[in-house]
Amino acid sequence: MPVKRKITEPDGVYFITITCHQWLPLIEQTNGYDLVYNWFDHLKDKGHYINGYVIMPNHFHALIAFRNTGQSINTIVGNGKRFIAYEIISRLEAQGETKLLHQLNLSVEAKDRERNKKHEVWEDSFDWKECRAHKFMKQKLDYMHDNPCRGKWNLVEDVTQYDHSSAKFYLCDEQGIYTVMNYLELNDVDLTKPVSG
After folding, report:
1. CATH T-level fold of 12-136
2. What global pTM score does this model have?
3. How far apart are alpha carbons 134 and 140 in whole angstroms?
4. Which of 74, 93, 94, 166 is the most buried (most CB within 10 A)?
5. Which phi and psi (to 5°) does residue 166 adopt?
6. Per residue in 78-120, pLDDT tens?
7. Domain boundaries, given as residue ranges, for the chain
């Protein structure tokens, strides 16, 4: 059972990992990559910065600079997980995936059922690491960008060939499917201040 750790800071740069329930490839199955991009758009609209990402078939990593909006970062991420989960379930229903939907329904714990939760799409908690130094941010970006070529995946020969990643931006200076802000530009950003105007 994952331990839910709370981010106590109101702002900062965080490397986050969100994993599908039981590592099921729900993102790939529903072609839900756009759902993650929509969440990134929502974050940008609120003044946050997407500095890097990779979206895999059953999890995704992102380097996000969260601005102090008065809302806790855990709440922001939790709301994002809920939004994406709702859409994934909707797509599974449209695909007629009754067996998988039943499996996700049976996985909901009693306390969550009382709150009217019907399906378990994600692992309970998300993993996070605070990134204060550029060296650590770069290390996390390299780690996430290598994902599609590592271990059992072998989705592409070269990290820059994987579409759902910011690797092409950092290695070829070419924005991919989703536009990110270089983490080095965060030097000029005061995350403690809310967005003006």
Report:
1. Alpha-Beta Plaits (3.30.70)
2. 0.94
3. 10
4. 166
5. -95, 10
6. 999 999 999 999 999 999 999 999 999 999 998 888 888 999 9
7. 12-136
